[in-house]
Predict the structure.
Amino acid sequence: MLTNITAVATHHRRTSRRAHDAPDTTAAFARVAGLAEGPERDLLCEELVEAWLPMAHRIARRYRNKGESTEDLDQVAAMGLVKAINHYQPERGPFQCYAVPTITGELRRHFRDRMWDVHVPRRVQDLRNKVRAARRDLTECPGSPEPGIGAIAAYTGLTEAEVRDGFKAIESYSALSLDAELSPSGHDGQSLADALGAPDTAYDLITDREAAKTGLRHLPERERAILYLRFFEGMTQARIAEKFGISQMHVSRLIHLSCARVRAEAAREYGAADGLPAA
């Protein structure tokens, strides 16, 4: 007796849910099919979306434990519902039979294209799914060892190289945060960001020095000596003037002209090397 009551109650709940999720909109869809693009058709489509939205949200709940927020899933399902309403043809059968796979496909595409932290080709995503399913099937029995690449390849019919790509894709689904701690042993709680390199400004200095070499070689010996004392020895213009027996103004002018010549020489040389017109 109790079993019969439970069965009746379950059937009533399912029937009520279907009635709530699947409203009778046959007449509305017939009107939409006979309308051209315009405000009246848009308004009627909005009413259909509102009527069928509970069903779309119910389908979205099937994916709620896959790392995406409920709000985002509802939005994706609603987009699928809009597509289904816009492309539905009443003569092809009940709307629900067309809408359910359309909404489900939109949700699956969302997970396929948007949930990866890095872009992975569709072929590699498919390999990931096959490898993951095969590993689950091969370890279903308690005590089963972790299957190797060869076992998974034999089970799926994939090559061992394809299985390796599938394993790499499994590891690439979500990226490791730069704030994640490295292995506790011997790293004193350092994060991954602490192990990354930083730009080395010395490379720019090397480039500048190499670019200036030709121009410096073409300078008179006195001008080269003045530049060396000023920029490498840090000597003031007054001391340089005293050393060479010339005025400080003359030293300033020589430094300015020498730097201009070195700069022009570097521009000509590197401009020609890059295929650019010489300065």
